# Entry
Amino acid sequence: MMKPTTLADLSQLKKEKRKFATITAYDASFAHLFAEQGISVMLIGDSLGMTIQGFDSTLPVTIENISYHTRSVRTGASHAFLIADMPFMSYATPEQSFDNAAALMRSGANMVKIEGGDWLCDTVKRLTERAVPVCGHLGLTPQSVNVLGGYKVQGRDDSSAQKLFDDAIALEKAGMQLLVLECVPTALAQRITEALEIPVIGIGAGNMTDGQILVMHDALGITARPPKFAKDFLKETGNIRDAIRLYIEQVESGAYPDQAHSFN
# Structure
């Protein structure tokens, strides 16, 4: 019988300097296919607002939406480690986060993901105390697209880079057990990855992080206007299963993301 993937497994991979691949999943069929090819960590992302629901941002996504898709993914990948996004304004206060996080955990998530810096430290601490593991998300945080002024690379100047670094350290001290870094320069992602004891997963953050994640639609060439960091693995292989295996192989070897899919 297959052994469930745990946070301890991911921490061990970091200690052994072995990179791992993760991907977004939204339904049982794809979750099962991904698990069969060797993906053991999946994110039920609020990216479903754009990829599944057809909106132009993640903001309309609700806890009910994420809960529904988490249950579906859990059905298809019973042994995978599932991270579920807390959508826009579902964790504006620590108290608000409790019921919403509980709904996602009851739907089959192993961990919840929240976007933002050190202002979330109290939320992270209090969720962790209540047996809810937390994944942070720094850099380009899509729920803040209206504040950021668009989908832009973050941390390119010294002050903003230092702010991201300080936020990562503070969140880890508060109890964060995993971190996603999105759209930051490779050198900054490497600095943060080496400073933290917890695993760091990159997306558009170069190949020096502990793991990588892609939106499945980007990895399979479905997205109409894919971001710079995305690679169409299906185009290279011709079928979905081989595409996912190639993605895993290139992440584990460090071949993906290369310079063309990273930011300086």
In short: The radius of gyration is 17 Å.
